[in-house]
Write a structure and sequence with these properties.
The protein is of the alpha/beta class. It has a domain at 96-411: Trimethylamine methyltransferase-like (TIM Barrel), CATH 3.20.20.480. It is 48% helix and 12% strand. The chain contains 19 helices and 20 strands. It has helices at residues 2-24, 42-59, 66-74, 89-98, 145-155, 176-190, 205-216, 221-224, 243-255, 275-296, 323-339, 357-373, 393-411, 417-420, 422-430, 439-447, 460-465, 471-485, 493-502, and strands spanning 78-79, 85-86, 102-105, 114-117, 122-123, 131-133, 140-142, 164-165, 195-197, 228-232, 235-236, 240-241, 259-263, 302-306, 310-312, 317-319, 343-346, 377-379, 384-385, 390-392. The strands form 6 sheets. An 8-stranded parallel sheet has the order 5-18-17-14-13-10-9-8. Strand 17, helix 12 and strand 18 form a beta-alpha-beta unit.
Length: 508
């Protein structure tokens, strides 16, 4: 009995040690090389691109702000008979050739900086959810500034979230300047990853950058190493500019704030229902954003964020998920990468209101398709629920685990003499007759396999004995643990005092 007890204790120690090691080893971290999934062939991409060029050259853009129109005319644009601003194909191609093809997204912690472009894949967040799935009641309520801060520090611990875009809106803040300032403050206080935000009006850009400069060490310091990207939609589908968003974009260019220019057309509503026509129209609109940026500042850092969105044509309701969303965002990533531009697409936007099977289906298929297609920045991929109207703490931690599986699939299979292991196969078959405990198995265990923490791999009886809990409840526990223990101090007391002295900070 004594020997059995010692043996059992030794085994438990070994299992615990191995489990701890498993948690430390990530077989497929962010930044894997995508491009394995190609929904379009080169001829189809060329046809879509040619149609987009024709749309820009012949149909052109409407509602062009005067400052932009004047600059475009100087660069070779013209008007058609309808008075719309048109861009010759050669002008567009020249702008594409001179645009930024890679972008550095700085983290305030340099170790968290990521490079965007080429075939590297990074998942992050997005959205402007007006409701939060309450971690206590399991029901939706209006999102608050405290929610935004809590989501910021929650994702700060999640390794598969490469950057953090404010995922919800502080609905209790009515003043637009207070909203933009406090949103940016919550990001500063809760994470050192690259972040992104938006601006209600152009006049709010300078005060936010002033706050960033306080943290960076002085006037003009933020622009030298910007850690925050502005999310802007300067083009309103179908095929027209939005004056307020253009003003914000131009102010960001002046202040050195990198841009993610997002086209968010919706099938059958603001874009054609047929996927090919949708992709051509949406590509033309995203190119119109690229033109807007580069006629003022050639090569300015801009993520080419072409997000094909879908509506349910039976009801007209927005749908954030499904096979069509997976397919078209993958195709969008493929087209943007073919053009040599830093690609931004959207995925993992479940229509489900609960953390349930529907959520898992919708998030999994869209995230995997976007990653395998090589989307450089896959937005909305963490936490977003209820067709982007809601965001969930539990979904954040579940999505982080899901993305480990996605990155593992993107990484693929390495084929070489060591991984083929001809000699090891022969030795095992002629020896023990199984591969358990063999050196090749031990090597592969850490190198090739991801071990989930939330997903349940117990047998049915053990699961029942443990309370028959579902993933939502396990994720709720993990989210609570993080929120109760991860209280980062990313602003010094002096920084915080200076910011609060200059701005109306509403977060306690």
């Amino acid at each position: 009995m004594t020997r059995q007890t010692r043996k059992s204790g030794g085994r438990k120690a070994r299992v615990a040690k191995r489990a701890a090691t498993e948690l430390e080893v990530n077989p497929a971290p962010p930044g894997q090389s995508g491009g394995q999934y190609k929904p379009l062939n080169n001829g189809e991409i060329q046809a879509i691109f040619d149609t987009a060029l024709r749309l820009l050259a012949e149909l052109g853009m409407g509602d062009v702000p005067e400052v932009l129109e004047r600059r475009c005319l100087q660069k070779g644009a013209g008007h058609n008979t309808h008075g719309r601003l048109c861009f010759p194909a050669e002008m567009v191609k020249k702008i594409i050739a001179g645009a930024a093809n890679t972008i550095t997204l700085h983290g305030r912690d340099p170790s968290r900086t990521i490079q965007v472009g080429g075939d590297k894949v990074h998942f992050g967040t997005g959205g402007a959810a007006v409701q939060t799935l309450d971690i206590d009641t399991g029901l939706y309520r209006p999102s608050t500034l405290r929610d935004l801060y809590d989501f910021t520090r929650l994702q700060d611990t999640l390794p598969n979230v490469s950057w953090f875009t404010r995922c919800c809106v502080a609905t209790e803040i009515e003043d637009s300047l207070d909203l933009d300032i406090n949103t940016a403050y919550a990001l500063l206080r809760g994470t050192t990853k690259p972040v992104a935000t938006s601006f209600c009006v152009a006049e709010n850009v300078a005060p936010v950058v002033q706050m960033f400069d306080l943290v960076a060490g002085g006037a003009g310091e933020f622009a030298k190493r910007p850690w925050c990207v502005a999310h802007i939609s300067p083009v309103i589908s179908p095929m027209k500019y939005g004056a307020d968003a253009v003003d914000v974009a131009l102010e960001c260019i002046d202040m050195g704030v990198p841009l993610s220019c997002i086209t968010a057309a919706q099938s059958g509503a603001t874009a054609p229902a047929a996927p090919a026509g949708f992709l051509a129209s949406s590509l033309a609109e995203t190119l119109a954003s690229l033109i807007m940026v580069n006629v003022f500042e050639p090569g300015f850092p801009m993520v080419f964020s072409n997000w094909p969105l879908v509506i349910d044509l039976r009801t007209g309701a927005f749908s954030g998920a499904g096979g069509e969303t997976a397919l078209m965002n993958a195709a969008s990533a493929q087209i943007s990468n073919w053009l040599g531009l830093p690609s931004g697409v959207s995925a993992s936007m479940s229509d489900s209101k609960a953390v349930d099977a529907q959520m898992g289906i919708e998030k999994g298929i869209t995230a995997l398709a976007a990653g395998l297609a090589g989307g450089n920045m896959v937005y909305e991929s963490s936490g977003m629920m209820a067709s982007l109207l809601g965001v969930s703490f539990e979904a954040f931690v579940i999505d982080n685990e899901m993305l480990s599986h996605v990155y593992r699939a993107i990484r693929g299979i390495e084929v070489n003499p060591d991984t083929l292991g001809f000699d090891a196969i022969c030795t095992t078959i002629l020896g023990d007759g199984h591969f358990l405990g063999g050196q090749q198995t031990i090597d592969a265990m850490q190198r090739d396999y991801f071990y989930p923490l939330l997903a349940d791999r117990q047998n049915p009886q053990s699961w029942a004995d443990g309370g028959a809990r579902d993933m939502w409840s396990r994720a709720n526990d993990q989210a609570r643990e993080i929120l109760n223990t991860h209280l980062p101090s990313y602003l010094t007391l002096q920084m915080d005092r200076e910011i609060r002295h200059k701005f109306n900070i509403l977060l306690d």
